[in-house]
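User: My collaborator sent over this chain with a note saying "see what the structure looks like." That's all I know about it. Can you take a look?
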Amino acid sequence: MSTIQTAKRKSRWPRWARRGLMENIATAIIAIGFLMLFQPFALALYTYSFVTMLAGTVMFIIVSKFPE
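Assistant: Without extra context I'll predict from the sequence alone. Here is the result:
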Protein backbone atom coordinates (compact mmCIF):
# COMPACT_ATOMS: atom_id res chain seq x y z
CA MET A 1 0.00 0.00 0.00
CA SER A 2 1.16 3.47 -0.78
CA THR A 3 1.67 5.94 2.04
CA ILE A 4 1.62 8.94 -0.28
CA GLN A 5 -1.34 11.19 0.37
CA THR A 6 -2.95 13.02 -2.48
CA ALA A 7 -3.16 16.76 -2.09
CA LYS A 8 -6.62 18.30 -2.18
CA ARG A 9 -7.20 20.15 -5.40
CA LYS A 10 -8.15 23.77 -4.97
CA SER A 11 -11.50 24.64 -6.45
CA ARG A 12 -11.69 27.25 -9.21
CA TRP A 13 -15.18 28.26 -8.13
CA PRO A 14 -15.51 31.67 -6.47
CA ARG A 15 -15.72 31.60 -2.69
CA TRP A 16 -19.35 32.84 -2.62
CA ALA A 17 -20.49 30.05 -4.99
CA ARG A 18 -19.27 27.12 -2.93
CA ARG A 19 -21.54 24.65 -1.24
CA GLY A 20 -21.36 25.75 2.42
CA LEU A 21 -22.58 29.33 2.02
CA MET A 22 -25.14 28.55 -0.67
CA GLU A 23 -26.63 25.64 1.32
CA ASN A 24 -27.06 27.99 4.28
CA ILE A 25 -28.84 30.53 2.07
CA ALA A 26 -31.12 27.82 0.64
CA THR A 27 -31.94 26.61 4.15
CA ALA A 28 -32.75 30.18 5.20
CA ILE A 29 -35.12 30.56 2.21
CA ILE A 30 -36.89 27.34 3.19
CA ALA A 31 -37.18 28.60 6.79
CA ILE A 32 -38.61 31.93 5.59
CA GLY A 33 -41.22 30.05 3.55
CA PHE A 34 -42.09 27.97 6.61
CA LEU A 35 -42.55 31.10 8.72
CA MET A 36 -44.66 32.66 5.96
CA LEU A 37 -46.90 29.58 6.04
CA PHE A 38 -47.55 29.73 9.79
CA GLN A 39 -48.07 33.44 10.31
CA PRO A 40 -51.71 34.49 10.91
CA PHE A 41 -51.54 38.09 9.64
CA ALA A 42 -51.06 38.48 5.89
CA LEU A 43 -52.82 36.32 3.33
CA ALA A 44 -50.31 37.32 0.63
CA LEU A 45 -47.45 35.84 2.65
CA TYR A 46 -49.43 32.64 3.15
CA THR A 47 -50.14 32.52 -0.58
CA TYR A 48 -46.48 32.73 -1.60
CA SER A 49 -45.13 30.49 1.16
CA PHE A 50 -45.34 27.34 -0.99
CA VAL A 51 -43.50 29.01 -3.88
CA THR A 52 -40.81 30.24 -1.48
CA MET A 53 -40.30 26.82 0.09
CA LEU A 54 -40.26 25.18 -3.34
CA ALA A 55 -37.65 27.66 -4.61
CA GLY A 56 -35.48 27.02 -1.53
CA THR A 57 -35.76 23.26 -1.98
CA VAL A 58 -34.83 23.43 -5.67
CA MET A 59 -31.92 25.72 -4.81
CA PHE A 60 -30.75 23.28 -2.14
CA ILE A 61 -30.86 20.37 -4.62
CA ILE A 62 -28.87 22.32 -7.21
CA VAL A 63 -26.36 23.67 -4.69
CA SER A 64 -25.70 20.24 -3.23
CA LYS A 65 -23.89 19.41 -6.50
CA PHE A 66 -21.46 22.34 -6.07
CA PRO A 67 -17.90 21.68 -4.89
CA GLU A 68 -16.83 22.23 -1.30
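A starting point for your reply to your collaborator: Helices lie at 19-37, 43-63.
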